[in-house]
Amino acid sequence: MTQPPDNASRQSAGPVRLLSFDLEEYFQVEAAAGAVGAGQWDSFAQRSPAVVERILELLASRGSTATFFVLGWIAQRQGDLIRRIARAGHEIASHGMAHAMIHRMTPEQFRDDAGESRRRLEDLSGSAVLGYRAPTFSITRATAWALDVLAEAGFAYDSSIFPIRHDRYGVPDAPRFAHWAVGPAGGRLVEIPPLTLRILGANAPVGGGGYMRLLPLAVVKAALNSAARAGRPAMIYLHPWELDPHQPPLAMSRLNRFRHRLGLSRMERKLQALLERYRFTSVAARLEEIRSNITERFVYGG
């Protein structure tokens, strides 16, 4: 098995700006979980392949690479798409199998879920899967045992802990930038949080998802520039469904509908503008550099 494509030779200079996509379908989001069960997913048309093709074309045109955190459910049904992403020089990482938040799993179930996803993705991509991102950023203090599971399984890095306050996720006092995350049992791996800005003594989320759809692009650029000045890695994350404003509406609460659909029509233009202004890479392309420059260690759980 080969290692992930190494783009460091042509992209290693300059600030570490990381771009990632959580590859899942629009009907698999947590906001729709109450209305659309996993048993119904196969009754929906899969819209992500067409969007991913547009993303790949856009990345190629701007000379950037990305990490795709792929849901195992997608990999089972879209193997050719996963191979296409890998052949284009992008990193394939794990987003679990069935988009279940970690607090709904036991450690044994989580180990099986992450392991099955990893095996499927490695078989499809032909490269080692180094990274993991939990559905809905659901590694929190209460589920910090997941860090021990990931470290024991041999994952090199995680990108599941958002250092903010949120009703579904977040560890607000966690470090804002890449650090060694230590689980309750002492397991250790690199943690790469999504991008935030420090405003009025609190961490403001800006680095992707609904936050990037809501905020002016100038705020996202300010956060990227601030991280670069500090010599810190900056992680941006998106979902392919966020570049698909014509997706069918789903039965959701008013709040969840607002969160899910806000700014969908503007997201692709924002991504294009960022790619025109900055060069991004996958995590794998810069992981050794990130690891060697880590100065913080943070113990979760306990």
Describe this structure in words.
The protein has 302 residues and is of the alpha/beta class. The chain has a single domain (15-299), classed as TIM Barrel. It is built from eleven helices and eleven strands. A five-stranded mixed beta sheet has the order 4-5-7-6-11. Strands 3-2-1-10 form a four-stranded parallel beta sheet, with helices on both faces. A two-stranded antiparallel sheet has the order 8-9. Helix 2 links the parallel strand 1 (17-23) and strand 2 (67-70). The longest helix has 19 residues, at 107-125. The protein is globular, with a radius of gyration of 18 Å. The termini are far apart. Residues 1-12 have low confidence and may be disordered.
Looking at this protein, list some descriptive labels:
alpha/beta; globular; 37% helix; 302 residues; disordered N terminus; 11 strands; TIM Barrel
Concise account of the structure shown:
This protein is of the alpha/beta class.
The fraction of residues assigned to DSSP E strands is 5-15%
Mean pLDDT equals 93
Count the E strands: 11
Shape from CA axes? globular
Q: CATH superfamily, called what?
A: Glycoside hydrolase/deacetylase
SSE series: HEHEHHEHEHEEEEEHHEHHHE
Total separate domains: 1
Quote the distance from N terminus to C terminus.
36 Å
User: pLDDT under 50 segments (min length 5)?
Assistant: 1-12
**Named CATH topology:** TIM Barrel
CATH architecture group name: Alpha-Beta Barrel
Q: What is the CATH C-level name?
A: Alpha Beta
What is the helix content? 25-40%
